[in-house]
Amino acid sequence: MTMRQPRAGGRARSGGRPTLEEVAARAGVGRGTVSRVINGSPRVSERTRAAVEAAVAELGYVPNTAARALAANRTDAIALVVPEPEGRFFAEPYFSDIIHGVGVALAETEVQLLLTFASKARERQRLAQYLAAQRVDGVLLVSVHADDPLPDLIEQLDIPAVVSGRRSASEPLTSVDSDNYEGAKAAIDHLLSRGRTRIATITGRLDVYGAQRRLDGYRAALTAADLPVDETLVVPADFTEGGGRRAMTELLSRRPDLDAVFAASDVMASGARQILREAGRRIPDDVALVGFDDSAIARHMDPPLTSVRQPIEEMGREMTRLLLEEIASVGAHHSPASRLLAREQLVLPTELVVRASS
After folding, report:
1. Per-residue pLDDT at 2
2. Coil vs helix vs strand at 33
């Protein structure tokens, strides 16, 4: 290629932002060449690249990311959709940890994050209209219930999406989850090793696949220890502190002889602890208590709570990584079928953190 002679002169025209054309004139190349350099194309010689980069630096040119995104049919934005009431979102550390992980993953990109709640029919309808208008490039779905229509809607719109926690064993969307089954099993094995035999569990909402898997792990550990699974020791709740209190009250009414409780979240364990204290039960002397999440709540409880640590921030990072990869595959004009084949079901390991409550 023949290099054009750079124009003499200093910075761009006085007043106003330097343009792509001015960078091209300064570097002595065409506008398309400047665009290729800015977008990292390999189809440019080192000499040309150096000339363009020097012109960009001299003029103080800042690429118009909005225009670039428009040209690529992208918005450079993703939505984090939470199909839960806002009260639960702000009460549970799980959600803030997920967002922190997402933020870390987006920090080195130009992608913006939109947070939206969609627990009610009207909110879902508004979100559907927003997504159909192609105002975001992809969706992160957190805390999805088995009967939630949102994932199917998103799939129909052919929008890249990643869910936190599968809806079932046959989840069709890309998903990131923690090993709920093994985490719960480790919690019960720990309680059994401490000589506890009348172990109750407070489950989360059983239309959440992760809550089902924690219950499955509880049952499997008891069965492996040749202990019966007594359904009077199983009470479902809703992952809230109030739910933990109500479930613990019911458990003490049903089985006052229980000697351990596995709560499927730290928040519910906190509610259970209040009821145990009010009933005069000492923790762990009379009743051992174990939670799930290993959130700040677990560390600050009295006594500190034994809990199953799930790598929530890492889940947020991995969800974002997988979503950005799906978005990039769309940009590379991959077919929906090839994207479907590439969808991943990532399960991250959990770890039992033993503290004074057990």
Report:
1. 40
2. helix
Give 20-73 pLDDT, tens digit per residue.
788 889 999 987 788 777 766 666 788 898 998 898 888 887 766 545 554 455
The parent domain of residue 229 ranges over 180-309
CB atoms under 10 Å from CB of 157, counted, come to: 13
Distance CA 114, CA 103 (A): 11
* pTM for the full predicted model: 0.74
Q: Is residue 139 part of a domain?
A: yes
- Residue ranges of the chain with per-residue pLDDT less than 70: 1-16, 39-43, 63-74, 331-343
Looking at the DSSP bridge assignments, the partners of residue 9 are none
Residue 40 pLDDT: 64
Q: Name residue 163's beta-bridge partners.
A: 141, 175
- pLDDT score of 84: 82
pLDDT at 7: 42
* CA dist., res. 130 & res. 344, Å (int): 26
Report residue 341 as tokens.
Answer: 């084949």
Specify whether 59 is located in the same domain as 96.
Answer: no
pLDDT of 16 reads: 66
CATH code at position 58: 1.10.260.40
Note the pLDDT of residue 68. 52
Q: Is residue 68 part of a domain?
A: no
Q: How far apart are CA 123 and CA 197, in angstroms?
A: 46
- Domains in the chain: how many in total? 3
